[in-house]
Design goal:
Blueprint: H1 15-28, H2 40-47, H3 51-63, E1 68-69, E2 75-76, H4 82-103, H5 109-127, H6 133-150, H7 157-167, H8 169-181, H9 189-199, H10 203-236
Length: 238
């Protein structure tokens, strides 16, 4: 019996796909500043490739709203604005709260052990003075959240959440910078609260801890925007 209809061809990952994946990963983890210009030649040199796959990857990321195309055909990381901040915060709380509620019944004792390990590692990374601290904490935070989200088993919601995290990259970076300036701000408090609520099968408590965690980062940026606007008013009025 022929199996041609039951098997899918094996597709090799292309150089274009790898370049796109690396830029996408870097944006998710806040490796670029808000407003930073994405210079094709510089990126190609860093990635040790030609300009063509970089150009194609940037085009894909613009279409996903992770990057912004300017009238002069250059590309940059979007600027931080209050309107976009509120939109992203609202969307993330709604979607990620829902996927957390869906994941809760599927989490077992071994999963809570792993979530504790990730949170402890993230806490240690936050407290360190490593030069690579921002990257490590971002990756551990991402691993913590998506460990929970994947337990929901939703092939529809996961790509939506990934898109929201991709668009949130500049905000992640800015929040991390503000946190570094204010070491007294607890970094993983809401992670521990979320684990406890999940263990107790408390849906409302889990969603609250998750949304508190998301809101905390955005609140750091809201405070910075408030200060900048107050300074601008003071300058205008002498």
């Amino acid at each position: 019996m022929s199996r041609r209809g039951a098997l899918s061809p094996v597709v090799r990952e292309t150089l274009h796909d790898r370049v796109y994946a690396e830029l996408r990963r870097s944006l998710i983890h806040g490796m670029f500043d808000a407003g930073e210009m994405m210079r094709i030649v510089d990126l190609a040199e860093t990635l040790e490739t030609s300009t063509m796959p970089v150009r194609e990857a940037l085009g894909r990321l613009v279409s996903e709203q992770a990057l912004e195309a300017l009238p002069n055909r250059s590309v940059r990381v979007p600027l931080i604005t209050r309107e976009r901040l509120e939109d992203l915060a609202r969307a993330r709380c709604l979607i990620e709260g829902q996927i957390t509620a869906l994941a809760l019944p599927n989490l077992a004792a071994a999963d809570f052990v792993e979530l504790r390990r990730l949170t402890a590692a993230c806490e240690a990374a936050f407290a360190s003075n490593d030069r690579d601290k921002a990257h490590k904490t971002s990756e551990l935070n991402h691993a913590f959240h998506f460990y929970i989200y994947r337990a929901a088993g939703s092939a529809v919601l996961i790509p939506i959440v990934e898109s929201l995290w991709l668009q949130s990259g500049p905000y992640v970076r800015t929040a991390a910078q503000i946190h570094d300036e204010n070491r007294d701000i607890p970094a993983t408090h809401h992670h521990w609260a979320l684990i406890e609520a999940l263990e107790h099968r408390d849906v409302a408590g889990s969603v609250k801890a998750l949304t508190d965690d998301i809101t905390r980062s955005f609140n750091l940026i809201r405070g910075r925007l408030d200060d900048e606007e107050a300074d601008a008013r003071e300058v205008r009025h002498g």
